[in-house]
Design goal:
The complex is a heterodimer. By secondary structure, chain A is mainly alpha-helical. Chain A contains 16 helices and no strands. Chain B folds into two domains: 2-58; 68-238, MetI-like fold, CATH 1.10.3720. Helix content of chain B is 76%, strand content 0%. The chains are: A mainly alpha, B mainly alpha.
Chain lengths: 427, 280
């Protein structure tokens, strides 16, 4: 096992050499890989030099000559430059690690592979990247790029009065966030919208889950007949497109000629309820409708889980003389929660951003004095209004960022509950 | 005796609850159908059981020269086919990589997907609007399709990866032993075995454009580019309570097929979701 023919091969030297991508690999006598890396990095600089150059200049200045420089274009080029740079950096680090690992293997006496083998190896390692590449590319430009753009926009002064290409945008730091918290009309609106958003998320989602749990358990009762039919009907609200049902409910709840006031409440109690003109009643109606729309999904989930709980649990509990409530508390409930917790968190996150129902039902209305959002606007529908009705792009972006932070909290909870990716993917 | 009455009481309670839910669920749907048969156009004066019912609104949707219903149907079908195809292809490639290969960045990729599926594309609507405007894809179906496909990747890739994980590794390992290449394993083993989940992904992405209203609302501007959801919304939005019966007729025509397909397929979705959530 003496160093028969293998010169003292230094891992350090390989790593240091790969400061220029490819050299380290060449030193490791991986000639193909090395030259590919060299070529790639050279190509990267030649092709992207201009974009990087203009991108970073634009990102810092947002343009210098009004009407000639379009700050929005410059900003997006800047973001592209950032994305390119982060890809390059990842590649760079991977290249150094790769050189080090190869050098280590050579030190340990591994034979250098033949040309053909190294081709096969290269294809094997590259393959997962080739698979994910197209999807990743699309994801970056359709999802990540807009999210980044929005994040940057929150720190500029893009409004109707100050809009490119006529005007230049400027970086204004945290001014938009400050405005949200200090200028009275913004602050009042922000706080009342935020608190309603939280109440809405909590109450509507919890009701959905509670109703679903109740129904799933009673329908699962062995004495109930025609289970299939009952389950199908209970899932109907999920099957009908949401925008259709919401608009139908808008008509049903209409103050003057809606069926709920005209056919049910007025004949029974003599007076109708101002469903669409009083913020409180609009909120009540919204929560009711969301429960109607949202419970079937959770119901279907719960039904699936209930059917998979082994009967033995209940038989054993029965023998020990457990009451029905105890069985629910110690068997059914934990099973349901364990299997569905991540999905339930998603439900909360979904309602938190449930734009459709708020906007379609009453467009966030009715209007309320002393604030520039409607009485039932949640954060995301307020962002929509600010963007498309009053062109307050920067403030809207700032609010979106705050929204994102809150969603991140949900995501964090989700991570802790999901064990899915811990053990998978060894090969 | 005592036990018997208790049993009876409980059953009454159970069936009572179910009956109430049935009424609450079915009433709005029947009401819509009833309204769509009203000859008049306004909500006022329309009733659930019209005295002289007619299919006038259905006929109008298909035959009147002013009606864009068929154009919207065509647009929606184009968007739906493209989205469904695009997203199934991208998603199955990505899921295959995440399920069967270990590579640099895999773990962070999964984290990123989990995170991204929580952020609705809608949250970046400011940016999407401005960006599509800049590249000239505003008011085009292509812009809409791209956003649908891109936005569908994180959630669906997760679903399909979960399914791939349940296919025994011995299968593709032995194929590899016999000299099958990467793509061969994908096309001859993984994809055929994953047909059920791929069908679900394709179908749900096909249905999404029929149901989604807000992205078309942001992206599409001219009536001849509208999708069904957006066009129907404008029936009621333009002059509220004026065209409600027409809206009802148009809605019934998309709600019925979608609901039928959905009811047939929902159990696949549920099993996919739960296995994805608990097993990965």
């Amino acid at each position: 096992m003496e160093s028969s023919g293998i010169r003292a091969h230094s891992t350090k030297l390989a790593t240091i050499l790969s400061i220029v991508p490819g050299l380290g690999q060449l030193y490791n006598r991986r000639y193909i890989k090395g030259s590919i890396f060299l070529l790639l990095s050279a190509a990267f600089f030649i092709v992207f030099y201009d974009i990087l150059n203009i991108g970073y200049w634009g990102l810092f200045t947002l343009g210098e000559i009004p009407t000639v420089d379009d700050s929005r274009v410059l900003l997006s080029q800047g973001i592209i430059a950032l994305i390119l740079t982060s890809f390059a950096l990842t590649f760079y680090v991977a290249n150094m690690i790769d050189a080090r690992n190869d050098a280590k293997k050579i030190q340990e006496g591994l034979q250098i592979t033949s040309l053909k083998e190294s081709f096969v190896n290269a294809w094997d390692t590259a393959f997962p990247y080739i698979l994910t590449g197209p999807g990743l590319f699309l994801l970056v430009f359709v999802v990540i790029f807009p999210l980044l753009f929005m994040a940057f926009l929150a720190f500029t002064n893009y409004t109707l009065m100050n809009s490119p290409p006529k005007n230049l945008l400027d970086w204004v730091g945290f001014d938009n966030f400050k405005a949200l918290l200090t200028i009275p009309i913004w602050r009042n609106t922000f706080l009342s919208v935020l608190s309603w958003t939280l109440v809405w998320t909590f109450v509507a989602t919890t009701l959905q889950i509670a109703l679903a749990m109740y129904l799933a358990i009673i329908v699962n009762d062995p004495r109930v007949k025609m289970k299939k039919l009952i389950r199908t009907v209970l899932i109907l609200p999920w099957a009908v497109p949401g925008f259709v049902t919401i608009l139908i409910f808008t008509a049903l709840f209409n103050d003057n000629f809606g069926a709920i006031n005209r056919d049910i409440l007025i004949p029974l109690f003599g007076s109708g309820v101002p469903w669409l003109s009083d913020p409180f009643w609009t909120r009540v109606a919204l929560i009711g409708i969301q429960t109607w729309l949202g419970f079937p999904f959770v119901f279907a989930l719960f039904t699936g889980v209930l059917q998979s709980i082994s009967k033995e649990w209940y038989e054993a509990a029965d023998m020990d003389g457990a009451s029905r409530f105890q069985m629910f508390k110690f068997i059914t409930f934990p099973h349901l929660m364990f299997a569905t917790a991540p999905l339930l968190i998603m439900q909360y996150a979904g309602n938190f951003n449930n734009f459709n129902i708020i906007y379609l039902f009453n467009q966030g209305g009715p209007a309320v004095k002393g604030q520039n959002a409607g009485g039932t606007d949640i954060l995301i529908s307020w962002v929509y209004d600010l963007t498309f009705e009053s062109s307050q792009f920067s403030i809207a972006a700032a609010i979106s960022l705050i929204l994102g932070l809150i969603v991140a909290i949900f995501a964090f909870l989700q991570f802790r509950k999901t064990t899915s990716f811990k053990e998978e993917g060894k090969m | 005796m005592n036990r018997k009455t208790r049993n009876a009481l409980e059953l009454t309670g159970i069936y009572g609850s179910i009956l109430i839910m049935f009424i609450v669920i079915i009433y709005p749907l029947l009401w819509t159908f009833g309204l769509s048969l009203n000859p008049g156009s306004s909500l006022f004066g329309a009733s659930m059981i019209p005295e002289n019912w007619s299919f006038k609104h259905y006929v109008w949707l298909f035959t009147d020269p002013e009606s864009d219903y068929l154009i919207w149907y065509k647009n929606t079908l184009i968007v739906a086919f493209a989205t469904s195809l695009g997203s199934t292809v991208f998603v199955s490639l990505v899921a295959y990589a995440f399920s069967r290969y270990s590579f640099f960045g895999r773990k962070y990729g999964i984290y990123a997907f989990l995170l991204l599926q929580m952020f609705p594309v809608l949250m970046a609507m400011v940016a999407i609007y401005i960006l599509l405007n800049l590249v000239g894809l505003l008011d085009s179906l292509l812009g809409l399709i791209l956003i649908y496909v891109g936005g569908s990747i994180p959630m669906n890739a997760f679903l399909v990866k979960g399914y791939f994980d349940t296919i025994p590794r011995e299968l593709d390992e032995s194929a590899r032993m016999d000299g099958a290449g990467h793509f061969r394993v994908l096309f001859t083993i993984m994809l055929p075995l994953a047909k059920p989940i791929l069908a679900v992904v394709a179908l749900f992405n096909f249905m999404a454009p029929f149901m989604d209203f807000i992205l078309p609302r942001i992206i599409l501007r001219s009536p001849e580019n509208y999708t069904l959801a957006l066009g129907l919304y404008n029936f009621v939005n333009a002059q509220f309570a004026n065209n409600f019966t027409r809206f009802a007729a148009g809605s019934i025509l998309i709600a019925v097929p979608i609901a039928l397909v959905f009811l047939m397929l929902q159990r696949y979705l549920i099993s996919g979701l739960t296995s994805g959530a608990t097993k990965g």
